[in-house]
Design a protein that fits this description.
Helix content is 38%, strand content 22%. The chain is α/β, with parallel strands linked by helices. The protein folds into two domains: 272 residues, Aldehyde Dehydrogenase, Chain A, domain 1 (3-Layer(aba) Sandwich); 187 residues, Aldehyde Dehydrogenase, Chain A, domain 2. Helix 2 crosses helix 7 and helix 10 crosses helix 11. The longest helix is centred in the N-terminal third of the chain and has 19 residues.
Length: 499
Amino acid sequence: MQELTHFINGEHVKGGSGRFADVFNPATGEVQARVPLASKQELDAIIAKAAEAQPKWAATNPQRRARVMMEFVRLLNRDMDKLAEALSREHGKTIPDARGDVQRGLEVAEFCIGAPHLLKGEYTDAAGPGIDMYSMRQALGVVAGITPFNFPAMIPMWKFCPAISCGNAFILKPSERDPSVPLMLGELMKEAGLPDGILQVVNGDKEAVDAILDNETVQAIGFVGSTPIAQYIYGRGCSNGKRVQCFGGAKNHMIVMPDADMDQAADALIGAGYGAAGERCMAISVAVPVGDATADALIERLIPRIEKLKVGPYTAGDDVDYGPLVTAAAKERALGLVESGIRQGAKLVVDGRNFNLQGYEDGFFMGAHLFDNVTTDMDIYRQEIFAPVLSQVRAKTYEEALGYAMDHEYGNGTAIFTRDGDTARDFANRINIGMVGINVPIPVPLAYHTFGGWKKSGFGDLNQHGPDSFRFYTRTKTVTSRWPSGMKEGGEFHFKAMD
């Protein structure tokens, strides 16, 4: 069995704690590797090495730092297929989906090539008599990222690319469920010219997370995962004086107006609800059609589309729609919520509970589910399921539909499908959710905008990637300057008398 490593100071390093976690093949249920879990002592030593390397990197011209990102982008394109296959093998998502995972991270690296411009300060000439004022954006020092299993390429790059471009050293603690791609990214950054110690990839569990939170050298932490853990990391990190941004769970609503193109809306829901087996924080998990006629028309179109979904391992070809869930525990939890929905009175229109993939009976595959007549007091409505389960909540009016999305505790993403510009504009202006799609089901912003949810989906003042990331990973220093005058009049060749 393969034994994975950490990637420390530019080298693969075996774990020293004696503790390991199993890495599964989600398609077969077999353990395919063991990943070491770092101790607090290991973390502290790794952070100390990063702190030694960081000042020289921060002093490097930002354009030279950007050239490392430029080369990193080239290497990502070179190794795209290799990265996608490794990602699919551990996570379970299809190869096209895995390529998209890498590509969305690559685009943030491309954005970071513009670091010299993004790091420019401001200048005011003659703010007072002989006084000039200017500001500088300076690196924080050592920063860290704690990233989730569902995007093992994209989200690490969302974190470390801007942080490193700003001149920081970065401690990456990826998910222990699919750690191979983050280790490969560490290798590629070294090949791109990044000095040793600037990107440290250290695998671990809660002990490693707490070591990062409590280490005085770490100045900032970024996290993506579930809301309870986001709240824990945000509270403990902030109480330790760190800058913290945490992104948590989601329950994304898609409102379907009576004037919407129903076929377009149904197609959008299929991809947004069931793609990646629903294991996306931007997945649409709640459809809210306005009016019973709209709801009936939507259900009528969804059922045959869902029944045609092809579920299988990534090795079955690019026409597979989605693969397994990441672990047996994730599947068990999701099926438990399906049973809860039935008990609480929701109508199970498409029942995937008896799904069984021949030859992969021990894998973590789950059939697609569709609920109708879901109400807001049900567990399947309130909780993030993170599985191929779509719920339909019927609304009588636009205002009622808007209220469902606004009243939910999560506020990551939302969408509306309509042909009416006034309705779309009203929705975008009023909704209390961070990312909004208008006839776009998964409104993930491109790299030069910022990604972030509201309410219990996001904790902290600044978002991921885009200009906010450069603000998050730097401090602003403002200098007020005045120089004594006199020498501009020329040299003097005699002693001046005392006044």
